[in-house]
Amino acid sequence: MTLQKPVRSSLVKQIAEQLVQRIESGAWKVGERIPPEPELVEQLGISRNTLREAVQALIHTGMLEARQGDGTYVRSSSEFGAAMQRRLRRSTLLEILEVRYGLEREIARLAAMRRTDADLLQIRQKLDASLSLRHDPQAYITADVAFHIAVAHATHNSVMIDLYEQMTESLRLSVSGTLDFHDLLDQQAITHTALVQAIAEQSPDAAEEAASNLIQASKTALTELIEKGGMDA
Q1: Burial (Cβ within 10 Å: 0-12, 13-18, ≥19) of residue 9
Q2: Where is the signal peptide (predicted)?
Q3: What does the pLDDT look like over 150-199, one tens digit per residue?
Q4: Of the spans 110-114, 147-151, 211-215, which averages the highest pLDDT?
Q5: Does residue 64 sit in helix, strand or coil?
Q6: Is the entire prediction scored with pTM above 0.85?
Q7: φ, ψ of residue 96 in degrees (nearest 5)
Q8: Across residues 73-98, what is the average pLDDT?
Q9: Domains annotated on the chain, with CATH
Q10: Phi, psi (5° rounding) for residue 136?
Q11: Would you give the distance in Å from CA 14 to the centre of its chain?
């Protein structure tokens, strides 16, 4: 069999890869507008058409989002995240929550087994921040997500962290402003504290049980709301 000469990546592909690197490195954060076209053209030393093709490719993958009259914004922090968001948009809330149920339990176990002192400090700080915002449901939800992501980071499993972040963000956007979290706050304070304690004591079984209790309460509340017609499944 005759070997084929390698094909050099097109300029558009090379530019798209540079833009992806900017996003994945955190230089351009999710929700931020990327630099205007003239600035990028000058920095990269390319034509407007080449830049537009590269940007359009990332819009197609879901990493960027064009807003008419307002520029182009970062929509996802990775190609994996963009692909996950496309898939999750075709899923029901209960489907996402059921998958998260299994993921949350394994994350709790691994966090208890692998956490460092620095991880534990970060987890405790995020928990304190969320509990201090219980009077503000929207702020509490955001802080609670940050707490759970801190727990996920304690697993030191990059794939699990990426998957969890995407699923949690999708769920947050769907239920934010819909569920009444006031009834859950007292119970969540107890289960969150139990989870942190288990991670601190490096007890995988106790951590898994706390995570199971936590996600089951959310699942029950969501199921009841759907049955009452408060939101679509």
Answers
A1: exposed
A2: none
A3: 999 999 998 888 888 877 766 665 555 445 555 667 777 888 999 999 99
A4: 110-114
A5: strand
A6: no
A7: -65, -45
A8: 79
A9: 11-76 (1.10.10.10), 91-227 (1.20.120.530)
A10: -120, 95
A11: 27
DSSP string, 77-89: SSHHHHHHHHHHT
Q: Can you tell me the distance from the alpha carbon of 201 to that of 217, in angstroms, rounded to the nearest whole number? A: 24
Contact 181, 140 (CB under 8 A): yes
- Measured in whole angstroms, the distance separating CA 85 from the mean position of its chain's CA atoms is 9
Sign of torsion over alpha carbons 114, 118, 138, 90: negative
Burial 67-89 (b: 16+ CB within 10 A, else e): eeeeebebbbbbebbbebbeebe
Q: Are 221 and 179 spatial neighbours (Cβ–Cβ below 8 Å)?
A: yes
Report the Cα 81 to chain-centroid distance in Å: 8
d(CA 145, CA 4): 49
- pLDDT the model gives residue 122: 97
* CA 57/CA 47 separation, integer angstroms: 16
Distance CA 57, CA 40 (A): 16
Q: Tokens 């309460």 label which residue?
A: 217
Contacts (Cβ under 8 Å, ≥6 apart) of 219: 94, 97, 98, 101
